[in-house]
Amino acid sequence: MRPATRPVSHSRQRPQRWQCKTPLYHYRVKSKDAAGNLAVSPDAVFTTAPPPDTTLPAVSITTPAANSSVSGTITVSATAADNVGVASVQFKLDDVNLGPEDTVAPYSLSWNTATVGNGLYALTAVARDAAGNTASAAVTVTVSNDLTPPVLSGATASALSVDTAAISWTTDELADSQVEYGLSTGYGSASVLDASRVTAHTVTLNGLTAGTLYHYRVKSKDAAGNLAVSPDAVFTTAPPPDTTPPAVSITAPAANSSVSGTITVSATATDNVSVVGVQFKLDNANLGAETTIPLYTFTWNTTTVANGTHTLTAVARDAAGNVAISAPVSVMAANGDVLPPSMPTGLTATAVSSSQIFLVWSPSTDNVGVVGYKIFRDGMQVATSSTSAYQDTGLSPVTTYKYTVAAFDAVGNTSAPSAPASATTLFKSAQGVVPASAGVTPSVTIAGAGPSTASRRSVSAASPFLPAGTRRCVTAA
Ligand SMILES: [Ca+2]
Ligand SMILES: [Ca+2]
Ligand SMILES: [Ca+2]
Ligand SMILES: [Ca+2]
Asked: How far apart are the CA of 144 and the centre of ligand 2, in A?
């Protein structure tokens, strides 16, 4: 019952457009066999393909501005529109894709300009619609990045203490600050990076070891990330404080020795750092100036002190001010007779004539012995006397004279002068009398003449050898 083959034909078709934008067609098919039997299909529909999109998108670059200078990392952005829809925007740098396509508005890209050399570049945004229509917009920019590291200069270490150092340097542009340091050029330690950008840099290093040589170098980075590193340099921290006093001892004279004349006092002094000076002392008073040069010696004239026991010490000091005092050394000063006689007392002056005044006083004492007395008339020495009396002669009548006497010993030590005593010579017609209270037979020494023993008696004015009314003293045989 297979029907003869007959072509299937489409019956008249009546297109019906429901909408302009979505034309929908209904149709049915009909077929009749050889016997005239007709078959008709149910209704069915189809839609024709839409008209092709031939409209290009519109695109423009919003940043950066055309002909601008750019550096560092910037945002490149574009706006794009299309009659149907923008599928993507592709940014390009000199026709080379810059990142992936951006399929979602807003269309932008972060661009690190430092990845290319300085110079002119074309930035392009290519917008594409679903139909493959593309449009592009371009701007020209100048990439101008800082490619030069800072120039470091004047790196110095200052304010050195036992555990700190201040490192200073300058840069020719704003840059950050950091110091690497350590016991060798391997460094090993670094200050905390000071990110603030300055041109005058100071970094303080703490926690250092006293008296130690450190190597360091400074580092500064500019805003563009260009790093400069100084050559190696060194500094030494302050030495640890000296808290150890010197050791000092007197080496001469020997303890308990007898000294006389001029002697050398010497000491030895040592210190863990160094001795600055040694001060000798006698009975706790400075003996001369401090000696600063080893060997520590002092030339001491022992006659400047009284005979007897004295104590020598030596005080040594170091630069840190630590002081040490030696063990005391006792010595006996023995310089012979250095003591003057006692001051004469009880001086009396009595005029015995118009030209003579008799002096008498209490004898002085001396540790060795009084040798004599110096006679001073009106402040001038006129004679010496080996005894404690003297008769001054050759004076003017009726004249007041003031006397003092002083005792001396064999080596010339002279006492203080006595209290003064005065007397007035007599008229030529008068006669003085030797005071009986003296109780002595005066030994009189005339200046420039040897001593002589004299006794006195009155000679009568009636003597035929003297003018009437005069008396004179004579020396007995
Ligand atoms: Ca389009
Ligand atoms: Ca720079
Ligand atoms: Ca010391
Ligand atoms: Ca004496």
From this structure: 12
